[in-house]
TrEMBL record:
GO biological process, alphabetically ordered: termination of RNA polymerase I transcription
Protein's recorded name: DNA-directed RNA polymerase subunit
Native source species: Folsomia candida (Springtail)
Domain TFIIS-type, first and last residues per copy: 95-137
Main location: nucleus
Compositional bias of kind Basic residues: 73-82
Length: 140
């Protein structure tokens, strides 16, 4: 265990030890002095007693409405035609790449490491045209 005459070695967020950088225990009760688990340095936590964390969870109903789904998880009927909307849902990031089958200008892609570590990854492309959905792969 080392002690230093310096107040702190480096500046950090209040949740981290200013001597070694490790995560501090959550202050509980009325005590203002805590001890770092790693360097055993005494840390004054008076400045973090008013810190609070808020976690926001997405509301499932709001998410469904944004995606155009009814409460049962199915697509809402489009007006006038009586069929479900045929929205194309990307299976990953979308790039400007022409589909070899239908000529559509956008494809989504996903990458996987299928070969040995010293070789490149395999990129799987999927056509964004709902009627086509052609899939192709490329070894990079």
């Amino acid at each position: 265990m080392w002690k230093s005459k310096i107040e702190q070695v480096f500046s950090t967020d209040p949740e981290f030890c200013s001597y070694c950088g490790s995560i501090l225990p959550v202050p509980s009760g009325t005590a203002t002095d805590h001890q770092c688990f790693v360097c055993q340095e005494s840390i004054n936590t008076k400045h973090v007693t008013n810190v609070s964390y808020i976690v926001h969870f997405n509301d499932a109903d709001v998410y469904s409405k944004e995606r155009g789904e009814s409460s049962g998880g199915r697509k809402k009927k489009s007006k006038g035609k009586g069929k479900y909307k045929e929205d194309v849902v990307a299976e990953g990031p979308v790039v400007d790449r022409e589909c070899r089958r239908c000529g559509h200008g956008q494809m989504s892609y996903a990458t996987l490491q299928l070969r040995s570590a010293d070789e490149g990854q395999t990129v799987f492309y999927t056509c964004m045209n709902q009627a086509c959905k052609f899939k192709e792969s490329e070894n990079s």
